[in-house]
UniProtKB/TrEMBL annotation:
Organism field: Oceanobacillus sojae
Repeat listed as a keyword: yes
Stated name of the protein: Transcriptional repressor CcpN
Taxonomic placement: Bacteria, Bacillati, Bacillota, Bacilli, Bacillales
Keyword Repeat: yes
Domain CBS: 80-136, 145-208
Source superkingdom: Bacteria
CDD domains attached to this UniProt entry: CBS_pair_CcpN
Length: 209
């Protein structure tokens, strides 16, 4: 986040003399309290300053990178999950390849007749299956998919950073977001490496505003 010259001055004043009231900060800058209100609100929401009733503003002591790290660690899965792409367990490998191509995704989730998760198909799975001389239209996806309980899943209230660690440590492209039902795990979303890339781009844009 790029701070204005006045916002930087406010931080220096609070660093030196905090806790200090908004009125006293305004006096030091020869400005009105109303003029400073937007700057104080931005600095407080961004985490550079904190405020206590009848006490005033004080400096949190955190750098921009520390604040950004804290912000990322608070994100939940449901804030960034994308629409999942699934195929029925009865479809063929050929159909799965077609779906992956048309939907432009790196991971397909396989569901049963109750729309519950039973497997996962990656690009590598489909590539390995297509390297032989077999008739792909005659091979059902359960033969090549990864099955439960060897599937990494997450819930909507899980921390996004924890899912990112799983993507890296398990060397997978995507994780299904699920919820428990009487029939099994229903897929309600997905988190992928692309999700994390988009998040980094958004944070970079926000940091320049």
């Amino acid at each position: 986040m790029d701070l204005s010259k006045r916002q930087q001055q406010i931080i220096e004043i609070v660093k030196a003399d905090g806790p200090i009231t908004g009125e006293h900060i305004a006096e030091r800058l020869t400005l009105t309290r109303a003029t400073l209100r937007p700057d104080l609100a931005i600095l407080t929401m961004a985490g550079f300053l904190d405020a206590r009733p009848r006490v005033g503003y004080f400096y949190t002591g955190k750098t921009g990178s520390e604040l950004l790290t804290e912000k990322i660690k608070r994100y939940k899965v449901h804030e960034f999950q994308q629409v999942p792409v699934a195929v029925n367990e009865k479809v063929s490998v050929y159909d799965a390849i077609s779906t992956m191509f048309l939907e432009d995704v790196g991971t397909l989730f396989v569901v049963d007749e109750n729309a519950c998760l039973v497997g996962v198909l990656s690009r590598k799975d489909l590539l390995r299956a297509s390297m032989g001389r077999q008739d792909l239209s005659s091979i059902p996806v359960p033969i090549i998919m990864t099955r439960m309980p060897n599937i990494t899943v997450c819930r909507k209230n899980d921390l996004l950073i924890d899912v990112a660690h799983q993507l890296i440590s398990r060397q997978i492209d995507g994780v299904p977001v699920v919820k428990d039902t009487k029939n099994g795990l229903e897929i309600i979303g997905r988190i992928t490496k692309t999700t994390m890339t988009k998040l980094l781009v958004e944070l970079t844009i926000e940091d320049k505003i």
